[in-house]
Amino acid sequence: MTKKTKILLIHGFLGSGKTTLLTQIISLLHDYRCGILQNEFGKINIDGRLISGKSLELIEISNGSIFCSCRHNEFIEGLLKFSDINVDYLLIEASGISDPSSMKRDLKIVERQNIKSYEYIGSICVLDALNVLDLIQVTPIIGRQIRFAELILVNKIDLIDNSIYLQIKDEIRKINNDAFIIPTEYAVIQKGQLNKIFDIKTPEIIEDSINDSIERPLKMLLEKEEKVDKTLFNSVFNDIKEYIWRLKGFIKLKNGNFYIDGVKGGYQLTKTNIDAPKTQIVVIFPADIDYSIIENIKSVWKSI
Fold first, then answer.
1. Are 154 and 127 in contact, with CB atoms under 8 Å apart?
2. Measured between alpha carbons, how far is residue 295 from residues 214, 283, 290, 298, 300 in Å?
3. Environment class of 1 (CB within 10 Å of its CB; exposed 0-12, middle 13-18, buried 19+)
4. pLDDT recorded at residue 212
5. Distance separating alpha carbons of residues 110 and 68, to the nearest angstrom
6. DSSP 130
7. Residue-wise over 24-59: b if at least 16 C-beta within 10 A, else e?
8. What distance in Å separates the CA atoms of residue 239 and residue 197, rounded to the nearest whole number?
9. Contacts (Cβ under 8 Å, ≥6 apart) of 174
10. What's the CA gap between 65 and 68, in Å, rounded?
């Protein structure tokens, strides 16, 4: 009998810590052969470059959600490709705006087309403890991500106090009373916590994804060939920080190349050996942002 490849889905809103968790899980599963199917909302795949140096099978799907009709066929094709590759685990990182509710239906489609079947062991939802209570009020995606998860990581727990954490747990339990909740810093989990996913038996719910019915966030790609002055960049960021949902990419500063990772209110720089040919930063805004703000940002960016 052909051994089944175990599928683990990682999802969560923009900037919650999904790729950080993915790298943690890859380390925990070092004794197994892993495949990665990575989904980016933007046109360029930033996160794929962060893990591409590892000895892994990697397929990337960019510019949309794998659960949206615009990228759904590519997702099915990716699953079919991995069915011909000898991997023990297939780790799927969905984009930050993905609604995973149709995942089990998609696997049934694949099984009908290929003799090798997958074993779906469940999904992990990563929540940004700093922003989730606000975001859950303004986008239905958060609730869908919580509802269809077996494990839920409340990440960045070190940045909030316990009363906020208890509020977050209460909100989770209103939506999903079965998932195992794990508070984390930097999305660090232990092997025993990861194995909890095998113990959680959530109701067999299959629904249509709402990715086709909601307004897509707006995105912008900031690019520059020349090295960027950090002081001037901070000035640009201060102008946009209250509007953005997500910011990430590679920035070439005078003192080297950096990976930039930010959400509303702040960003972090991490020095990297990845030789990005130029500065490329993906910025994601809510769908209802005034477009004049975006035009102003473009104008300011050209001037720095």
1. yes
2. 23, 13, 9, 5, 9
3. exposed
4. 57
5. 17
6. T
7. bbbebbeeeebbbbbbbbbebbbbbbbbeeeeeeeb
8. 42
9. none
10. 5
Which of 159, 81, 146, 148 has the alpha carbon at shortest distance from 118? Answer: 81
| pTM, rounded to two decimals | 0.82
| Domain architecture of the chain: domains with CATH | 5-198 (3.40.50.300), 218-303 (3.30.1220.10)
pLDDT in tens, 11-59: 999 999 999 999 999 999 999 999 999 887 655 555 556 555 555 788 8
Which residue positions in the chain have pLDDT lower than 70?
1-2, 41-55, 63-64, 69-71, 114-116, 201-215
Encoding tokens for residue 62? 């960019």
CB 289 within 8 A of CB 218: yes
Residue 291 backbone class (left: φ over 0; alpha: ψ -120 to 50; beta: rest): alpha
Q: Let me know the angle formed at the C-alpha of 250 by 246 and 252, rounded to the nearest 5 degrees.
A: 130
- Residue 260 · residue 269 · CB < 8 Å: yes
Amino acid at 133: L
Q: What is the C-alpha to C-alpha distance for residues 127 and 90, in angstroms, rounded to an integer?
A: 22
Give me the pLDDT at residue 242, please.
87
Extended strands (E) in 46-159: 57-61, 89-93, 118-128, 151-155
pLDDT for the residue 10: 96
Question: How high is the pLDDT of residue 107?
Answer: 83
pLDDT, tens digit (0-9, with 9 covering 90-100), for 137-171: 988 999 999 999 999 999 999 999 999 999 999 99
